[in-house]
From TrEMBL:
The gene is Pcdhgc5_0. The lineage of its organism: Eukaryota, Metazoa, Chordata, Craniata, Vertebrata. One of its GO terms (cellular component) is plasma membrane. SMART domains: CA. InterPro entries: Cadherin-like_dom, Cadherin-like_sf, Cadherin_CS, Cadherin_N, Protocadherin/Cadherin-CA. PROSITE patterns: CADHERIN_1 (PS00232), CADHERIN_2 (PS50268). This is Protocadherin gamma-C3. Residues 5-104, 105-213, 214-321, 322-426, 427-538, 545-663 form the Cadherin domain. It comes from the Eukaryota. It is found in: Cell membrane. It is a single-pass type I membrane protein. GO terms for molecular function: calcium ion binding. Keywords: Calcium, Cell adhesion, Cell membrane, Glycoprotein, Membrane, Repeat, Signal, Transmembrane, Transmembrane helix. One of its GO terms (biological process) is homophilic cell adhesion via plasma membrane adhesion molecules.
Length: 677
């Protein structure tokens, strides 16, 4: 066996050894013996020059690749010679050279160390690796200068060296949050080779600092009734810790009242305090808000501060009107200056905005009197008349002195109580009534109506009938008439008879229900209107019932001789007494005639021998009423030769009828009187 030693990384063709010399043979013999070199590995790192017997490097040799960390590295060759066949074992030791520096796994490493870490705490660093061996491998570490850490290198039994950082001085993140170190690994080669790694140490925060406000207290001024969301103040607190330990949350302290929490709200992230309720100067002029700032560390640390908010008054309150005393009813005869109400006014605003003046409309019979500050009395200013105005709505206007002023209007309803100061008044000073005779009993002749502007009991009217002065004492109106006491309807107790009573007058008195009662009267004239209720009555010729009156005439009577005259009267008046006479039936209608108005019966032609000796005439007396009434009378005319007697009888009857013009005159006068009325 032949052994050679060569360093690694020789160039191709580098001399390893002379096999001919080392075997003690001739080079020519080796060439003739068909010399061959066989390697145990897959790669042919060596070759032999058969002409010179020199073994040379044919490929790059990397000891670390071939043998790793083994302290010794060998490559084995077999040398074969023919004629005769011989084998020689050649062992080539590959010697290490310092061709690799120590190398860390990365160029930079980061450590996170709690700032409250204990002194002496150790923090391992991944070691550097050097594939070289022996003195060429990693030998030592060096740490850059710093104030807090030292380097400790742990040696293992296998020769490995592991660096550790040892905390020698307490960390303070708030003073220095990052430390930057450099660790150098160096081997023992000549010259030595080294590599470096940067170590970044992040000091992890500990919650060792509480939040701090930039001011011990804050102040703000707001106008009352500020809109919701109005910014009051923005707080600013800082915590030198980091992460959750320096993350600050703002809140209102539990020391604040529930009412204050309804008015203000704070944003826990930004520290902005905003209005979320109604700000009322009249309820509070100053608010003191206690605020706390907490970090999110464990345990949490907190800090407190005060925010003083001053509220500025604005004219946002209308005056208030309070009725200390008030009577909603007032007698209409109250004297001027009567106190109706006592009014207290106030305004919750301050300064000029809280001063109040009051007034009422000058068109009303009321006035305000200022008793003293904030109190007024409402008085009557003139006489009152319920019948003119029964109800008042008195508007009391209260205005403050703000700019612009605010007002409040309070309506006081005042009802006047009636006093019986008005007598009833009839609608007419007198009434004229036409009543047809034979009126039904109980029929309404007239309705008298009176009105009383008073109210309630004072306006309740009662009617009664009184006899009018100057009337016939025998004509008592209460005998014929009655009146309803409440509605004034005058009714008849008996039917009127025109032929007995044509005219009646009386007084109707009305009285109210006041105390004392007030009265008034009206005069009623009742005129009885005639009705055609009487048939004509025959006065001449007089005859009994179912009998006829006989008259005698001479056969030689000369037409138009008067035979007789039918005389009738009618107790009615006017047209109802206008009579007409009619010949309705006769033995010979052409022989006799009856005057329409006078009732004279005359012969119309000379008698003839052929005429009957007795003639029966039916005369009807009819009035002009509607419907007309009539009476019939039967006359018998006898034709006889007793001329003188007949004539005498005619003259006598004519003489008896001499009173007819007087009766007719009476009828005419009566008709004129009734028509005049």
């Amino acid at each position: 066996q032949i052994r050679y030693s060569i360093p690694e990384e020789l160039t191709r063709g580098a001399f390893v050894g002379n096999i001919a010399k080392d075997l003690g043979t001739d080079v020519a013999k080796l060439a003739a013996a068909n010399l061959q070199v066989l390697s145990d590995s897959d790669s042919q790192y060596f070759s032999v020059n058969v002409n010179t017997g020199v073994i040379m490097v044919s490929e790059r040799i990397d000891r670390e690749q071939l043998c790793g960390q083994n302290p010794r590295c060998f490559l084995h060759l077999k040398l074969a010679i023919e004629n005769p066949v011989e084998f020689y074992r050649i062992e080539v030791e590959i010697l290490d050279i310092n061709d690799n520096p120590p190398e860390f796994p990365s160029d930079e490493v980061s450590l996170r160390i709690y700032e409250l870490a204990s002194l002496g705490a150790r923090f391992p660093i991944q070691p550097a690796q050097d594939p070289d061996v022996g003195t060429n491998t990693l030998q030592t570490y060096h740490l850059s200068a710093n104030d807090n850490f030292n380097l400790n290198v742990k040696a293992r039994t296998d020769g490995g060296k592991f660096p550790e950082l040892v905390l020698e001085r307490a960390l303070d993140r708030e003073l220095r949050a990052f430390h930057y170190l450099v660790l150098t690994a160096e081997d023992g080669g000549s010259p030595p080779r080294s590599s470096k790694i940067r170590i970044t140490i992040q000091v992890l925060d500990a919650n060792d600092n509480h939040p701090v406000f930039d001011r011990p207290s804050y102040g703000a001024r707001l106008v009352e009734n500020s809109p919701l969301g109005t910014l009051v103040v923005k707080l600013n607190a800082t915590d030198v810790d980091e992460g959750p330990n320096g993350d600050i949350r703002y809140s209102l302290s539990s020391h604040n009242s529930a009412a204050l929490r309804q008015i203000f709200a704070i944003d826990e992230q930004t520290g902005e305090i905003r209005v979320q309720g109604n700000l009322d100067f009249e309820e509070a002029t100053v608010y003191e808000i206690e605020v706390e700032a907490k970090d999110m560390g464990s345990p949490t640390m907190e800090e407190h501060c005060s925010v003083v908010v001053e509220i500025t008054d604005v004219n946002d309150n209308a005056p208030e009107v309070i009725l200390t005393s008030f009577s909603s009813t007032l007698s209409e005869d109250a004297l001027p200056g009567t106190v109706v109400a006592v009014i207290h006014v106030r305004d919750r605003d301050s300064g000029e905005q809280g001063k109040v003046v009051c007034h009422v409309s000058p068109d009303l019979p009321f006035q305000l009197r200022k008793d003293y500050e904030h109190q007024y009395s409402l008085l009557t200013s003139t006489r009152l008349d319920r019948e003119h105005v029964a109800y008042y709505n008195v508007t009391v206007s209260a205005s403050d002195l703000g700019n612009p002023p605010l007002s409040r209007h309070t309506i006081l309803p005042i009802t006047l109580i009636d006093v019986n100061d008005n007598a009833p008044q009839f609608e007419q000073a007198s009434y004229e009534v036409l009543v047809a005779e034979n009126n039904p009993v109980g029929s309404v002749l007239v309705t008298v109506s009176a009105a009383d502007p008073d109210s309630e009991q004072n306006s309740r009217l009662s009617y009664s009938i009184l006899r009018a002065g100057g009337t016939d004492p025998g004509l008592d109106p209460t005998r014929y008439l009655s009146i309803h006491p409440t509605n004034g309807q005058v009714t008849a107790k008996f039917p009127f008879d025109y032929e007995q009573t044509t005219y009646l007058q009386f007084h109707v008195e009305v009285s109210d229900g006041g105390s004392p009662a007030l009265r008034n009267r009206t005069l009623v004239h009742v005129f009885v209107v005639d009705q055609n209720d009487n048939a004509p009555r025959v006065h001449f010729p007089r005859a009994g019932e179912d009998s006829a009156t006989q008259f005698r005439i001479s056969p030689s009577i000369v037409p138009p001789a008067l035979i007789t005259k039918v005389v009738a009267i009618d107790a009615d008046s006017g047209r109802n007494a206008w009579l007409s006479y009619h010949l309705v039936e006769a033995t010979d209608l052409g022989l006799f005639s009856v005057a329409l108005r006078s009732g004279e019966v005359r012969i119309m032609r000379a008698l003839q021998e052929t005429d009957a000796s007795a003639h029966e005439l039916l005369v009807v007396v009819r009035d002009a009423g509607e419907p007309p009434l009539s009476t019939a009378v039967t006359l018998v005319v006898l034709v006889e030769e007793k001329g003188p007697e007949a004539l005498q009888g005619s003259e006598a009857r004519a003489a008896d009828g001499g009173g007819l013009p007087t009766i007719t005159l009476y009828l005419i006068v009566s008709l004129v009187l009734i028509s005049t009325v």
